[in-house]
């Protein structure tokens, strides 16, 4: 079971691709560095996880739903809804211990971010990411970096995807 001060994503796809793997590992490590935990709740139970994801010590993996894992503490669970009337604020940490994310994680208002950052593939090609990313002090999007000695991170995945032909995408 995941402990207090936990951020949870319920992963509903039967696969967990390289993009999600990078994001989950980055979130798990950042959570651990801040004294919190990151829990990946997997459904269905047969979800395939890559070795780097399975080996990430900062990541807690659950094969039960959030409702089952936190049945006895459901009053402390905050389901983050992008359509909610009230935005999440720092005071909410006194009322909730478990924060459940769904879909794309949206940063809070006081966190600097960049929408749709443009990534340079090479001197002639660029791609625009259709997401919001937290930005660093230079104004660049913060993306997961090194996953394994074979994969250098999100930018490398973007570059590899840009090399695929139409037939590779089907």
Strand content: 15-25%
Average pLDDT level = 79
Termini separation (Å)?
38 Å
Helix content: 10-25%
Summarize, please.
This protein is of the alpha/beta class. It is built from four helices and nine strands. The strands form three sheets. Strands 3-2-1-5-4 form a five-stranded parallel beta sheet, with helices on one face.
Structural write-up:
The strands form 3 sheets. A 5-stranded parallel β-sheet has the order 3-2-1-5-4, with helices on one face. The protein has 170 residues and is an alpha/beta fold. The model has no long low-confidence stretch (mean pLDDT 79). The protein has helices at 18-33, 51-54, 66-69, 154-162; strands spanning 6-11, 37-42, 59-62, 77-79, 98-101, 113-115, 118-120, 126-128, 132-134.
What attributes characterize this protein structure?
170 residues; alpha/beta; two-stranded antiparallel sheet; 4 helices; 9 strands; 21% strand
Summarize the topology.
Blueprint: E1 6-11, H1 18-33, E2 37-42, H2 51-54, E3 59-62, H3 66-69, E4 77-79, E5 98-101, E6 113-115, E7 118-120, E8 126-128, E9 132-134, H4 154-162
Parallel strand pairs: 1-2, 1-5, 2-3, 4-5
Antiparallel strand pairs: 6-9, 7-8
């Amino acid at each position: 079971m995941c402990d207090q001060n936990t951020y949870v994503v319920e992963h509903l796809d039967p696969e967990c691709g390289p993009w999600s793997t990078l994001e989950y590992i980055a979130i798990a490590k950042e959570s651990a560095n801040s004294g919190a935990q990151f829990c990946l709740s997997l459904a269905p139970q047969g979800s395939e996880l890559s070795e780097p994801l399975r080996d990430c010590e900062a990541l807690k993996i659950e094969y039960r739903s959030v409702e089952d894992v936190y049945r006895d503490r459901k009053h402390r669970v905050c389901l983050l809804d992008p359509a909610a009337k009230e935005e999440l604020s720092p005071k909410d940490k006194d009322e909730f211990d478990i924060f459940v994310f769904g879909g794309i994680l949206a940063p809070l208002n006081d966190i600097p971010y960049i929408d749709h950052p443009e990534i340079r593939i090479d001197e002639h090609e660029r791609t625009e990411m259709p997401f919001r990313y937290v930005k660093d002090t230079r104004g660049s999007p913060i993306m997961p970096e090194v996953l394994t000695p074979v994969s250098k991170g999100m930018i490398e995945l973007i570059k590899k995807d840009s090399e695929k032909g139409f037939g590779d995408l089907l």
